[in-house]
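Quiz preparation item.
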């Protein structure tokens, strides 16, 4: 089966550091898409302790990742990386399915899913 998302090595190292800092080494990383933001959809990443029905599990660079059924088609082919700069660091999400995103870069929509756009 094709990987839904790809974590770069830099992103995986950052996630491992965050897991260690928060004493979450045994947790899963949940990646999801939810409605909201000015373009209609926004990303969510967080630690989870339970696999829910319909979750797809994958493992990359030692990180166990969960993706819910609804998010899978929206995230297919997405690359999550981590960039460090003089202004600090941050995760970047490159989703080939996003056809429009807002100016702030935190929300998007796809051709098939418009989500629930909100005022900026």
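Solution:
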């Amino acid at each position: 089966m094709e990987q839904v998302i790809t974590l770069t090595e830099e992103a995986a190292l950052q996630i491992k550091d965050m897991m260690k800092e928060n004493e979450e080494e045994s947790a899963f990383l949940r990646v999801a898409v939810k409605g909201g933001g000015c373009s209609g959809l926004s990303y969510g990443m967080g630690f989870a302790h339970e696999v829910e029905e319909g979750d797809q599990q994958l493992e990359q660079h030692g990180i166990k990742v969960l993706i819910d059924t609804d998010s899978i088609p929206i995230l297919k082919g997405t690359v999550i990386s981590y960039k460090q700069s003089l202004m600090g660091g941050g995760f970047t999400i490159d989703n080939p399915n996003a056809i429009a995103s807002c100016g702030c870069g935190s929300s998007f929509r796809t051709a098939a899913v418009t989500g629930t756009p909100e005022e900026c």
